[in-house]
Specification:
Blueprint lengths: L5 E5 L3 H13 L3 E5 L2 H10 L4 E5 L7 H11 L5 E5 L4 H9 L4 E4 L4 H29 L9 H13 L6 E4 L6 H10 L8 E5 L5 H9 E2 L11 E2 L1 H4 L4 E5 L6 H13 L1 E3 L6 E3 L3 E6 L3 H6 L5 H7 L2 E4 L10 H14 L8 E2 L1 H9 L5 H15 L4 E2 L1 H24 L3 H19 L4 H8 L3 H10 L5
Parallel strand pairs: 1-2, 1-3, 3-4, 4-5, 6-13, 6-14, 7-10, 10-13, 15-16
Antiparallel strand pairs: 8-9, 11-12
Helix pairs in contact: 2-3, 13-15, 14-16, 16-17
Length: 456
């Protein structure tokens, strides 16, 4: 038997609350009441409310202020505004602020019940969509409760519903793509595609084709028409990762696409209209890149409408314990490690002390190694210290190798040997598991082990 939805009626007139309660209880809804804004926010924070009916004109905190507070803490909670002084201006302002609907007092009974059913259905769909997106794309919520992360979460909530362009900056491994996905998933485009392009990973001569597509015969090897990322993302979001690595020529073409909201495929003449929200990210200082002539200032201003800067992990150490525990839980949820695995308080403190130059990505990898290699159910301080020592030894080995040789081939082979050795140790010398993890054939691993004299 499904749970009855809970509706919170907030109005400073008791007669209105009583009349609405009588109607809605007859329709099999569970009803809560609040006579002012402060009481409403207290109930929303402490009770499992499914929908709020909110009067606009109340003593003390008015309905619009209450609505804004609700949307800051529970943006998916539907709110229906009611008012005896209804105007188009008020209705527009309420819906812009996140209200699901606006009804005049006394509300028409049929209109009231239809609005409530639609609001509850919409809320269910939003929750289902978020669960599906999480299953498809992984976690998109920022983990952490430090002041910088809380500030970024609020900023994401504020900018996500708009179509404004966002430039996300920060060091490698700080979670820039995670922020981009969170913005998309909380936007009005969430039902459409999120298309990402790593501008640093695509050769300059292929980037234009990747972004805008090409016609058949446009160049040698173009045997079929190709639809580019701009067209693929039409109606949705295009995430340009590592935008600072794009060539000036490509930058000019992206700028033109943003100015005109249309693209031309390579080798084609047709102008194709696209409706795309652009999110971009970089680990570079674009102001310095502009000064050095490596990045177009006009493109920077087009992209940097809303800037979001992600701090490195060393500047938000209070989040490290939360992140470490969360990564460990994910490993147990996937049955990679025993569900009862945990950290001692001393181990978490040791993790907090580290600078983590690779940021969240490095921490995640370290947690996986600790979870797999620690012998006991509880990961101890000594386990963390041992891994840190091994990591520093590996870094020192590579640094010394750089100093000791000018031969790229010699450096590459020694780095490959160290990489393979560490991966084999990580997976307890299970060649099949190692091969799967680093995406090469088992026979190649055996050949490399023989080549580099690697033995357990």
């Amino acid at each position: 038997m499904s749970k009855k939805p809970t509706i919170l009626i907030t109005d400073d007139e008791k007669s209105i609350r009583s009349a609405l309660r009588e109607i809605l209880e007859f329709e099999n809804y569970n009803i809560l009441e609040a006579e002012n804004g402060e009481e409403c926010l207290g109930i929303v924070a402490s009770e499992p409310v499914d929908l709020v009916m909110l009067d606009i004109k109340m003593k003390g905190m008015d309905g619009m202020e209450v609505l804004e507070n609700i949307k800051e803490t529970r943006k998916d909670l539907p709110v229906i505004m009611i008012s005896g002084h209804g105007t188009i201006k008020i209705a527009v302002e309420a819906t812009k602020s996140g209200a699901f609907d606006f009804l005049e007092k006394p509300p028409d009974l049929n209109r009231l019940l239809i609005s409530i059913r639609n609001a509850l259905k919409s809320s269910d769909l939003i929750r289902e969509n978020r669960q599906i997106r999480t299953q498809l794309h992984g976690q998109t919520d920022l983990i952490g409760n430090s002041a910088p992360i809380e500030k970024i979460k609020k900023l994401i909530d504020k900018v996500a519903p708009s179509s404004s362009r966002v430039l996300i900056t920060g060091e490698n491994g700080t979670g820039k793509e995670l922020v981009a996905r969170a913005i998309h998933n909380n936007s009005n485009r969430a039902s459409k595609k999120f298309v990402d392009v790593n501008c640093a990973a695509i050769p300059a001569e292929l980037l234009e084709s990747e972004l805008f597509g090409h016609e058949k015969g446009a160049f040698t090897g173009a045997s079929d028409r190709r639809i580019g990322k701009f067209e693929q993302a039409d109606g949705g979001t295009l995430f340009l990762d590592e935008i600072g690595d794009m060539t000036l020529e490509s930058q000019a073409k992206v700028l033109r696409a943003l100015q005109e909201n249309q693209i031309v495929r390579v080798g084609g003449n047709e102008r194709i209209k696209v409706d795309v929200r652009i999110l971009s990210a970089t680990n570079k200082d674009l102001h310095s890149e502009i000064d050095e002539g490596n990045f177009r200032e006009d493109l920077f201003h087009r992209l940097n409408v809303i800037p979001i800067h992600l701090p490195p992990l060393r500047e938000r150490r209070e989040d490290i314990s939360l992140l470490a525990t969360w990564f460990l839980k994910r490993l147990s949820d996937k049955e990679i490690v025993f569900a009862g695995k945990s950290f001692s308080d001393e181990a978490l403190e040791e993790l907090r002390k580290q600078d983590w130059p690779g940021n969240i990505r490095e921490l995640q990898n370290s947690i996986e190694r600790l979870a797999l290699l620690s012998q006991d159910d509880e990961i101890m301080k000594s386990d963390v210290q041992k891994q840190i020592t091994n990591r520093k030894k590996t870094k020192d080995l590579l640094d010394n190798l750089i100093d000791e040789t000018d031969s790229f081939h010699e450096y590459k082979e020694e780095a490959e040997r160290i990489f393979l050795l560490k991966k084999l140790e990580k997976y307890d010398w299970n060649v099949s598991a190692t091969a799967d993890a680093i995406d090469i054939q088992r026979s190649h691993i055996y050949n490399k082990m023989k080549k580099y004299d690697i033995e357990r």
